[in-house]
Write a structure and sequence with these properties.
By secondary structure, the chain is α/β, with parallel strands linked by helices. It contains 13 helices and ten strands. The longest helix is centred in the C-terminal third of the chain and has 18 residues.
Amino acid sequence: MEYRRLGASGLSVPLLSFGAGTFGGTGEFFSAWGSSDVKDARRLIDICLDAGVSLFDTADIYSKGDSELILGEALKGRRDKVLISTKATFRFGGDANDVGSSRFHLLKTCEQQLRRLQTDHIDIFQLHGFDAMTPPEEVLSTLDQLVRAGKIRYVGVSNFSGWHLMKSLAVADRYGYPRYIANQTYYSLIGRDYEWELMPLGLDQGLGALVWSPLGWGRLTGKIRRGQPLLEVSRLHKTADQGPPVPNDYLYTVVAALDEVAKETGKTIPQIALNWLFHRPTVSSVIIGARNEQQLKDNLGAVGWRLTPEQIARLDAASERPKAYPYWHQSDFAERNPSPV
């Protein structure tokens, strides 16, 4: 397993990490992802560790805290061998202050997460979304307090806009608070918006991408093709409207290109889609999820080999989409404003 630095920090993370969103299955949304119990989770973690995958990602809202509970129980006796990443900010409770990135909520939820995870520290603590109602000075001073107390070690964000990040980084620099070094971001062959602003920002400011949903919300599994109905058993039946929108014709074009490369390499479509991400700037780790051992082992097959430059160019061309303003305009000024890809 290849390890890469997480952004501009000194922390090394595996190229593949495991997303524990499939642990628990509490509620209709997360039951569509998976429902691994502690026994299943231990087996999946065993396979991960044998393959060199040592970073496990979760969040407080995943299965209403059950994902963290199961991950903590399944990691008993081997906490020192892994890195734990989790997230908070979204609503977790019915009270007025059970949401956001206020000092009140972050301190409260971090303590709850430490208990659920059965650990004394969180290696990578990320804000799950931007809280426009809380001043960034309050957010970052709270994270600084948690770092100084040894309860979290590195900080990051997820689902922030570029201006959200830059405003926060400016506050961190002004007061000497910890800088965000991780950006847990949606990025896939059928979701390349990350490249327009967040990727250049990551390069400039030293944020490493922890990629979520690298298979395009389950669409790049090789099971969805032009002219074929959606499989009877698919989480897209329940979650398609809650994930990133993807036009069908665009998806079919990308899958056709993946099919071509799959025939040339002898690899599966998910393996090729994951390997394509390994070549992209700023990518530190790609988060894979799996409901069972077969899915996990297939995803692990994405490492240890490389796509050729010609194959990458073909996938790039098939997945290219028109840019929104001002990015299409900026692409005409590549002489002084080059694209990172």
